[in-house]
Amino acid sequence: MKTSHRIYFQNAAHMRPLDDRSVDLVVTSPPYPMIAMWDEVFCSQDAAIGRLLKGGDGMAAFERMHRRLDRVWDELRRVVKPGGIVCINIGDATRTLKENFRLYPNHARTLQYLQQLGFHALPDILWRKQTNAPNKFMGSGMLPAGAYVTLEHEYILVLRKGGKRVFQTAAQQQNRRESAFFWEERNAWFSDVWFDLKGSRQALGRPEVRARSGAFPFELAYRLICMYSVKGDLVLDPFAGTGTTLAAAMAGARNSIGFEIDPGLAGEATALLSATGDFANARIHARLARHMDFCTARAQAAKPFKHTNVHYGFPVITAQEKQLLLNDLQTVVACGSNAFEATYALAPQARFCQSGDAPGPQAVSAHAPVPGSCSPRLSEPRGTSTCQMPLFSEPAKSALAVRPPAEAGDYHSAKP
Ligand SMILES: C[S@@+](CC[C@H](N)C(=O)[O-])C[C@H]1O[C@@H](n2cnc3c(N)ncnc32)[C@H](O)[C@@H]1O
Hints:
The chain is an alpha/beta fold and 416 residues long. The protein is built from 11 helices and 16 strands.
């Protein structure tokens, strides 16, 4: 199994490399209108925005910024397949202009426009951020009525182009079954509030690019990709930034394409993609280990399992998980400018298999060390595994020092 990944450093208002109806899933986060760190990106595309901000006309500036994003949403209507899903991570903004404080509802404006384009809104997700400053307040403090609620959440809007996707052929149906997720993951991932995702480290460390990346956590993209696409699909991020969505697609055995207007981010993106193998496999193994823990806890509580996974031989709750198979990444190879190809193992990871001499759920735990394991642990310094299998290059290992996928630190959007 092979996937390909490429970032085009150009404006996503014209995604010419993409054919009509070619994309299965979009996972993206645009620059947020009226968040000051993105003013320059919008002003460089429409000089009138700068004048409106200076003059204090916030709502007019807000609308013109959204019109820039609308051009990209227009392109999504062209490139997304019927039945394809669009996930947009966006936060509202608060800002004071000429002493006038107000909320700029980016999520509502975006949702409304995509619906006008013909996309159907599905239930969305509130990403509740873990805050470092729970007592922070805005406005008049303890005195009514000029105090303001602190925004500590963002949205993940979920839309579909038309009706449900159909998996027609036997091969498509089998691929869908192998792309399944665990029952216990479904229960967490399909909650409408996500509390457990930390913001991603954002410092770029290269002031000539810009101070902060606006990156979202690897886990956010990885989860959405597992939820809304199958292996071999094409995932698009029109606002690719440092390439997090492409790295997550690679980890999930999906193809990916990104567009990014700022060529200064090429180094960040290629470093991340070359390094994806190690942390992707760590994430995959953590999913399997967590399932083993779940099985152990359920067995100890004398709760029954009705089904067995055919690849791993471990128990699963539903018949839909019987064919589930998570493929380890084997190689990541650069091929051309800002492009990569990845290959995957087709066999299940022996240490998670319950047949023969392989350890069962009692022997493999997300928390306990695994004797003789050749797989990198999540807690190990990355790139130090003694595994004979992964074939990642030295540049890929050194790139791990550049940006770990999901660390605590600054949050995704800058607060004004
Ligand atoms: C919020 S950031 C995305 C960060 C990304 N999710 C990541 O994890 O690194 C938005 C990105 O969109 C880019 N951008 C803004 N307007 C664009 C356009 N019209 N076409 C392509 N990229 C654009 C910005 O330069 C910025 O890097």
